[in-house]
Amino acid sequence: MRHPLTALRHICHVSAMLLAGVLFSATNVLAQDKAEIIAPKDRAGVMVPGFWAPELRVEKPDLIGARVVRFLTDDEYPPMHFAGVDGQPTGFSVELARAACAYLEMNCTVQARRFDTLLESLEERRGDVVAAAIPIRAGLHERFSVTAPYHRTPARFVARRGGEGMPNSLVAEVEGLRVVVVAGTAHEAYIAAFFPKAERVAVADLAAAQDTLKRGEADFIFADGLSLAMWLNGAAAGDCCAFVGGPYLESRFFGEGVGFIVREEDRSLRDALDYALRKLWENGTYTEIYLRHFPVGFY
């Protein structure tokens, strides 16, 4: 059997296409992804993804007057949104929301609610914008209006260190290689669709997957890149493992990213937030907030 780190050769080629916005569909047909990574910035070795094409000129929207805009979030999902030391909501989504409000000179409030009640609360007009890690999918577009994505978490492969070292490329033929995934997730479905010759090892949760890899009972983990990055750079991993290849961003499996969510009729607010997000990217505020919450790269 080939060493697992030399057996996966197409990952860098695929990753380069993904970062250019060209992705494989479930039927292996190339398609343009709806949420491209555009003009990424590299800061101290951390790739900061960009979602706003620099060549596009966007007119400043009419502001929404003296209205107080109420943001809703959850406080139990760091680093996206969590309770700060003062008990108030903070995190990447929350800080970005506050920065957008400051740029637009809008009066805003932020209130934490239970994650599974956020969309219902928005529908019931208990708030005006949801700033939380709710993936943009077709069903969401049917109920709400959503800004362009401001965050996207790729799927990544992780392998144990050693052997022949980290590969520079990846092959499609992975017959006999053991890939541990969390059962019932999009990551398991993706491996089944694109790596059918791999031996899938399905476990209950990510912690079990990490332990399986560390014990040598699998050759790879395929999972959420952000969660894997936090594990790899923590004490629990013990420097056992490392990312191999590049990011997987197929929207049909992993969603289009995360954006601010408003009610369908509130499109003027959505347009204002879209404008602010673009300007925060252009003036460096987005990068500053991103690196504060994601100091470890996961792309």
From TrEMBL:
Top-level taxon: Bacteria
Keywords: Signal
UniProt signal peptide: 1-31
Annotated transmembrane regions: none
Annotated protein name in UniProt: Polar amino acid transport system substrate-binding protein
Keyword GTP-binding: no
Pfam families tied to this protein: SBP_bac_3 (PF00497)
Residue ranges of every copy of the Solute-binding protein family 3/N-terminal domain listed in the record: 68-297
